[in-house]
């Protein structure tokens, strides 16, 4: 009885306990059902979050264009390959959506990804063993081009998918790279690292958007997906003052001279002296922003590396004397050496101090006499008055050019020898862009303009101009009369029999300019020996009313003993200036040695090939017919356009096919790509040596065309070694 009583009591307790637990659990379920919450968390919202897919809509980074709308930088779509290996991804066995045969998949992918089959197979099998949903293939599977993606898609391999991953792309390669800079992907965002890409990163970047929707286990949208879309706000576009054709010409000749003379440094700037617009700017060493590896020089030397200018400084010394009203060009002085006191090192002319006897100050400028410059400063202008002109030409401050990293030169003006050395470009330093800004006053009737490279910014969607820059006159350090007299003196440097700039003559245009040679110090010691100088030239043309101004400098070129430092500089100057002036339709101001009449084109588009091809070829044009059709649909030039003999005319027919473009210039390749809507990727500079699309293949919109270019073999050119850049200053 005692046992039964105890059993009944325990049973009752258990029953009460279980009933209590049941009521508690039931109550909890009823509460959850009534309120839809657990620990303050809404189950409805939690479910929505679990079945809601959310993706970022990447904002497209703004493009960078040249002054004429040629694309210099844009987001290029690339693709990342991924292989789905989870069998659950396949819903229909007849249409598998996962990798069914790792061995076969690896074998077919290997040649297209340029990687060993064993590596791909190992990645696939390892992923299957670890029960992963998908695998990727490291760097071999990233940044795939559209062409590679399409080739892989043609294999129809199950489970192979692609994710678009844009990268910043620069179609011209090593082209104004220290102006444009480059941008790289950091995690999921492309950010500017150097140049304009860094300077205007916020404007170019835009704002990412997003999309979210509810989906099932197979990632398919529900019937009522509650989709939310916020469109991305793309970055704004930037237009530069750079002219793609002039810049390309400059890059080509700079590359050629870099290979021929292997200098330590080279810098060149082409500018409109009336507006301050920089049309081209380049340095060597440079780099390809598509692959910025092993970069020798990150600095834009044209704006960031102050140097002793050498004798190009003399144009400002003479300008100061003329403006002060104390210059007498026909006054005679004794050249050779000049000594202001026994305690001050004498100044010697660049021919070892021998000089040329008694000469006038005008001839002193033409011959680039250091003694003439020193005497003008010390005896005629006055040291304090000269200092005022140094400041008037803004040599004591940055130009304010709209590029990052600008530096100003440094005035060394404490002792008498420093002061007279500054008059002929030694001791004190300045940047090339400071010289160009100051020289604009000589070319522009005394008005000094501010240099700039950003022309305008444009809304990428509405195409409305957000901000546009205008030419800005900073000051007038000299009068129009002084500028005209200086242009006459600078012309004599190029045209006079004893001038130091005879090698800089152009066939069709008169040139006013000044040569310069400065010494180089390393570890406090002066470098000696042939070629151990920085050689430079600052010239403008046409002389009476300059439309272009150009500065070129070459440091320590590897020149033969029978060559002068002007050899690489004059090659760069003459090629770029002569061709650029013609390209800009600047009227020649002197009779060309061999006048060439332009060819005015007839009506082309819509006519039959047979009627047009011979007509254009007979006139001396280089005609390229693209395709096998009979009628011309597009052409690279239109009715009444004027071309020169030898220029290429591209004619697109009904059925365009890839031509053999070996030997074509980059400009012609870009014309072809524009006419046929090809996605072109140039590599190198110069002229085409290889092409990725075979000759005769039908061209379709968006086809990828990769071309490799190399500079031509340098031509030989006679030089006059009697003058110019033996102008080594003390």
UniProtKB/TrEMBL annotation:
- Transmembrane helix as a keyword? yes
* Family matches, as CDD domains: PASTA_Pbp2x-like_1 (cd06576), PASTA_Pbp2x-like_2 (cd06575)
Which Pfam family is an annotated match for this chain, by its short name? PASTA
Acidic residues compositional bias, start-end:
715-730
Recorded metabolic or biological pathway in which this protein acts:
Cell wall biogenesis; peptidoglycan biosynthesis
Gene3D superfamilies with a match to the protein in the record:
2.20.70.70, 3.30.70.2110, DD-peptidase/beta-lactamase superfamily (3.40.710.10), Penicillin-binding protein 2a (Domain 2) (3.90.1310.10)
Domain PASTA, which positions? 654-711
Q: Does the keyword NADP apply?
A: no
Instruction: State the UniProt keywords alphabetically.
Output: Membrane, Transmembrane, Transmembrane helix
> Under which EC number(s) is this enzyme classified?
3.4.16.4
> Reaction catalysed by this chain?
Preferential cleavage: (Ac)2-L-Lys-D-Ala-|-D-Ala. Also transpeptidation of peptidyl-alanyl moieties that are N-acyl substituents of D-alanine
What subcellular compartments does it reside in? Membrane
Family to which the UniProt record says this protein belongs: Belongs to the transpeptidase family.
Q: What is this protein called?
A: serine-type D-Ala-D-Ala carboxypeptidase
Specify the species.
Answer: Lentibacillus salinarum
């Amino acid at each position: 009885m005692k046992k039964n009583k105890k059993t009944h009591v325990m049973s009752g307790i258990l029953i009460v306990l279980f009933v209590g637990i049941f009521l508690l659990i039931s109550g909890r379920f009823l509460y959850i059902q009534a309120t839809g919450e657990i620990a303050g968390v809404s189950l409805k919202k939690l479910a929505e979050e679990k079945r809601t897919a959310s993706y970022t809509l990447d904002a497209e980074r703004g493009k960078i264009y040249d002054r004429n709308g040629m694309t210099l930088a844009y987001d290029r779509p690339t693709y990342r390959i991924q292989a789905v290996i989870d069998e659950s991804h396949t819903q229909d066995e007849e249409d598998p959506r996962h990798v069914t045969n790792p061995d076969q998949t690896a074998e077919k992918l290997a040649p297209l990804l340029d990687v060993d089959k064993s590596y791909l197979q190992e990645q696939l099998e390892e992923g299957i063993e670890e029960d992963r949903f998908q695998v990727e293939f490291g760097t071999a599977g990233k940044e795939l081009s559209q062409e590679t993606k399409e080739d892989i898609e043609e294999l129809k391999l199950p489970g192979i998918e692609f994710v678009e991953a844009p990268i910043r792309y620069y179609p011209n390669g090593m082209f104004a790279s220290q102006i444009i800079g480059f941008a790289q992907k950091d995690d999921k965002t492309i950010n500017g690292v150097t140049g304009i890409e860094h300077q205007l990163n916020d404007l170019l970047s835009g704002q990412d958007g997003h999309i979210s929707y509810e989906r099932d286990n197979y990632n398919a949208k529900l019937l009522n997906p509650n989709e939310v879309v916020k469109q991305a706000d793309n970055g704004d576009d930037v237009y530069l003052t750079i002219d793609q054709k002039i810049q390309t010409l400059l890059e080509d000749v700079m590359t050629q001279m870099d290979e021929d003379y292997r200098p330590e440094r080279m810098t060149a700037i082409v500018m409109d002296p009336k507006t301050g617009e920089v049309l081209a700017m380049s340095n060597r060493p440079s780099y390809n922003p598509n692959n910025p590896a092993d970069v020798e020089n990150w600095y834009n030397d044209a704006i960031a590396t102050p140097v002793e200018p050498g004798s190009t400084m003399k144009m400002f010394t003479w300008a100061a004397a003329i403006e002060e009203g104390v210059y007498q060009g026909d006054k005679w002085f004794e050249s050779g050496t000049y000594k202001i006191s026994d305690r001050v090192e004498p100044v010697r002319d660049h021919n070892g101090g021998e000089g040329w006897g008694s000469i006038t100050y005008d001839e002193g400028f033409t011959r680039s006499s250091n003694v003439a410059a020193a005497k003008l400063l010390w005896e005629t202008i006055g040291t304090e008055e000269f200092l005022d002109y140094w400041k008037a030409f803004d040599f004591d401050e940055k130009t304010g050019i709209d590029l990052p990293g600008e530096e100003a030169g440094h005035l060394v003006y404490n002792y008498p020898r420093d002061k007279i050395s500054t008059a002929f470009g030694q001791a004190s330093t300045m940047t090339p862009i400071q010289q160009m800004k100051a020289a604009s006053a000589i070319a522009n009737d005394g008005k000094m303009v501010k240099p700039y490279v950003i022309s305008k910014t444009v809304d990428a969607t509405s195409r409305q101009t957000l901000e546009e820059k205008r030419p800005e006159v900073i000051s007038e350090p000299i009068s129009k009369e002084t500028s005209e007299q200086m242009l006459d003196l600078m012309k004599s440097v190029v045209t006079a029999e004893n001038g130091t700039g005879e090698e800089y003559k152009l066939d069709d245009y008169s040139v006013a300019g000044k040569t310069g040679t400065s010494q180089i110090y390393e570890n406090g010691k002066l470098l000696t020996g042939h070629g151990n100088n920085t050689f430079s030239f600052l010239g403008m043309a046409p002389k009476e009313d300059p439309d272009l101004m150009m500065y070129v400098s070459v440091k320590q070129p590897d020149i033969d003993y029978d060559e002068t430092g002007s050899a690489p500089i004059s090659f760069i100057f003459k090629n770029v200036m002569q061709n650029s002036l013609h390209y800009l339709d600047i009227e020649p101001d002197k009779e060309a040695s061999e006048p060439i009449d332009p060819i005015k084109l007839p009506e082309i588009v819509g006519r039959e090939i047979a009627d047009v091809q011979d007509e254009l070829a007979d006139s001396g044009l280089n005609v390229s017919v693209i395709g096998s059709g009979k009628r011309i649909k597009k052409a690279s030039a239109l009715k009444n356009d004027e071309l020169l003999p030898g220029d290429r005319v591209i004619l697109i027919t009904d059925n365009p096919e890839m031509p053999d473009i070996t030997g074509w210039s980059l400009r012609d390749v870009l014309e072809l790509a524009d006419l046929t809507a090809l996605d072109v990727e140039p590599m190198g500079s110069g002229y085409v040596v290889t092409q990725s699309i075979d000759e005769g293949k039908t061209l379709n919109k968006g086809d990828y065309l990769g071309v490799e270019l190399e500079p031509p073999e340098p031509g030989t050119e006679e030089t006059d070694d009697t003058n110019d850049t033996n102008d080594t200053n003390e």
